Amino acid sequence: MILIDGKATSEQIKKEIAQEVLLRKEKGLKIPHLAAIIIGNDGASMTYVNSKVKSCMQVGFNSTLIELPENTTEEQLLHEINILNLDKDIDGFIVQLPLPHHIDEQKIIMAIDPLKDVDGFHPVNVGKMTLELPTLLPATPYGIMELLERYQISTSGKNIVVIGRSHIVGRPMSILLSQKRKTGDATVILTHSRTQNLIDYTQKADIIIAALGKAEFLTGEMVKQGVVIIDVGITRIEDNSKKQGYRLAGDVHFESVSKKASYITPVPGGVGPMTIAMLLKNTLNTCLMK
User: Fold this and answer.
1) Which residues of 12-36 are buried (b: 16+ CB within 10 A; e: fewer)?
2) What's the confidence (pLDDT) of residue 50?
3) Which of 142, 171, 232, 283 could form an S-S bond across to 137 if both were Cys, CB 3.0 to 4.6 Å?
């Protein structure tokens, strides 16, 4: 069994980006600038956004963090987005999700300039991705594709089961893997909460992408020998033996599944770090397009 080290891979990608930024500085070219808007003080969101700011510093990007209070209105948020859309120095920006309940998430995503949508959530970018046109890919699926490619895991002609149909991971993942591309040409089955006899699909899968957000859902009896496992989930589970009072678990029961897997991503340290790395890559790409 080979552990797919997303942390090490993301660090390598950051080094590649930093080198490109350094070359741009030497040539007097524009330095990529990533901005982020966060509303409220949710601990997990704050940690994630701060890691993005830290990563920007690591690769030499300029970064801007806009912190807004929990009671920010939808109109006020749309105003902030419009400012970033018009700011020529900002190459890309994200609005940290989830948003407070009084704000329409889809309306906010639609308001972002597709050319600056480094999360890859805007319908224009999703449509281009579906049609195999050059565009900004959703960061997490982009990161998974990069892991598969860099670990030289063949997908052509393979049976791939995606568990979870979210717009952020599951659906785009199924589209990308089925396309005619180096990491693609697979037969993809998209499963979800209404799928009957899920085990019938998972036991035949060469590769499984688990992205349903249910801790340790996929167990060893559900997979075949030699399967490749990409675990996207991350859930806090109460654990008094840990200093922080909890442990992090993925959607995969690592202990039982890893005994059968040929490749598997850990949680943490697998897909998570890749999401931030590809967010940086998307920002660099938007800068290069200018």
Assistant:
1) ebbeebeebbeebeeeeeeebbbbb
2) 86
3) 142
Q: Are the C-beta atoms of residues 181 and 148 closer than 8 Å to each other?
A: no
Evaluate if pTM is beyond 0.90.
Answer: yes
- Which of 14, 52, 116, 281 does the annotation list as catalytic? 52
Segments making up each domain of the chain, as ranges: 28-133, 139-272
Is the distance from CB of 93 to CB of 37 less than 8 angstroms? Answer: yes
**Which one is catalytic: 91, 117, 119, 206?**
119
Tens digits of residue pLDDT in 235-261: 888 888 888 888 889 999 999 999 999
Q: Do domains 28-133 and 139-272 have the same CATH topology?
A: yes
Maximum distance among all Cα pairs of the chain, rounded to whole angstroms: 58
Active site residue 52: yes
Would residue 251 show up in a list of annotated catalytic residues for this protein?
no
Q: What is the DSSP letter of 289?
A: T
Q: Which residue in 14, 91, 96, 281 is the catalytic one?
A: 96
Architecture of domain 28-133 in CATH? 3-Layer(aba) Sandwich (3.40)
Residue 234: closest CA among 191, 276, 269, 200: 269
CATH architecture of 139-272: 3-Layer(aba) Sandwich (3.40)
Query: pLDDT by residue (tens digit) across 61-110?
Result: 999 999 999 999 999 999 999 999 999 999 999 999 999 999 999 999 99
290 is catalytic: no
The single-letter code of the amino acid at 206 is D
